[in-house]
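A reminder from the course coordinator: this example appears on the midterm review sheet, so study it carefully.

Given structure:
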């Protein structure tokens, strides 16, 4: 397999100059800098973002993304980036130059009550996107995950976290085999799922409103509980469940999403501690805390138990 070239600042400057022209970038050339770790995403001035696919699989998703964003834009009630240009930056490797949405991320700003309403509009809109049109664009259909298999994996991971003094395995006892059976995904509920609603992909203003959503390369047709789970990691379980409820989702998908998030965070943190997950430990710990925040129903149950003991 041919090794993909590593993009440099000079590579990015030459590409951007060819796309925007000297008049747009100035005589000194465009101001470019990597956006985070790696060389796949670059800030271009204050108005654009350049993303460079490192392999052919990512290239296929990146080529699909501008058309997919055009499909979802009328439905979801929040902004998505607009593609200014797209093509290949190396043999068979795609790029897209997008407009940059103004605002921070959910890792920088807390989401307010109005922001939760924005998330509800997003979830409602994703459910309304015509599935056939999305599949025509190449969006894959993915079956729901087994919550029971995930529960068993989380039980083993929880024991390893307990040995590292990171997590109390007793917290998983709430999720029994019978509960996972009750929370199995129901047939005929597949919708368009963003499938990557992490904090860095939510554009949040300082007042807590959700102004936009990034990262549309992993979209699938599948289980809507996956997006509820993503929001639990990004903004906390109570806010995620409130947004999903506002979007019209009943208790089953809300609780399913909650437990997908909780089990995922336990497994990923355990794998990170053993070097099998590349996710940064501080962020994984924060996501675990968010996912395990008690929702209202659990808080009411805890109060009743305390009253009975008293």
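Designed residues:
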């Amino acid at each position: 397999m041919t090794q993909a070239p590593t993009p440099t600042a000079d590579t990015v400057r030459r590409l951007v100059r060819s796309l925007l022209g000297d008049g747009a970038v100035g005589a000194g050339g465009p101001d470019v800098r990597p956006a985070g770790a790696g060389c796949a995403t670059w800030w271009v001035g204050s108005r654009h973002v350049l993303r460079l696919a490192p392999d052919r699989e990512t290239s296929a998703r990146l080529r699909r993304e501008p058309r997919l964003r055009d499909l979802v834009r009328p439905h979801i009630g929040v902004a998505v980036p607009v593609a200014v240009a797209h093509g290949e930056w190396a043999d068979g490797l795609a790029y897209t130059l997008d407009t940059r949405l103004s605002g921070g991320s959910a890792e920088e700003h807390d989401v307010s009550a109005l922001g939760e309403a924005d998330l509800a509009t997003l979830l409602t809109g994703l459910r309304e996107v015509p599935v056939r049109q999305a599949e025509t664009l190449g969006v894959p259909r993915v079956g729901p995950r087994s919550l029971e298999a995930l529960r068993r994996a989380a039980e083993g991971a929880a024991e390893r976290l307990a040995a590292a003094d990171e997590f109390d395995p007793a917290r998983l006892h709430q999720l029994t085999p019978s509960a996972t059976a009750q929370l199995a995904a129901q047939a005929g509920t597949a919708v368009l799922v963003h499938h990557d609603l992490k904090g860095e992909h939510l554009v949040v203003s300082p007042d807590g409103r959700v102004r936009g959503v990034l990262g549309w390369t992993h979209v699938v047709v599948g289980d809507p509980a996956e997006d509820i789970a993503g929001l639990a990691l990004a903004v906390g379980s109570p806010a995620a469940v409130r947004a999903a409820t506002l979007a019209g989702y009943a208790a089953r998908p809300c609780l399913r999403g909650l437990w997908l998030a909780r089990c995922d965070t336990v497994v990923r943190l355990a794998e990170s501690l053993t070097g099998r997950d590349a996710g940064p430990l501080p962020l994984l710990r924060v996501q675990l805390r968010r996912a395990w925040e008690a929702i209202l129903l659990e808080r009411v149950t805890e109060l009743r138990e305390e009253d009975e003991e008293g």
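The mean pLDDT is 91. The chain is about 50% helix and 15% strand.
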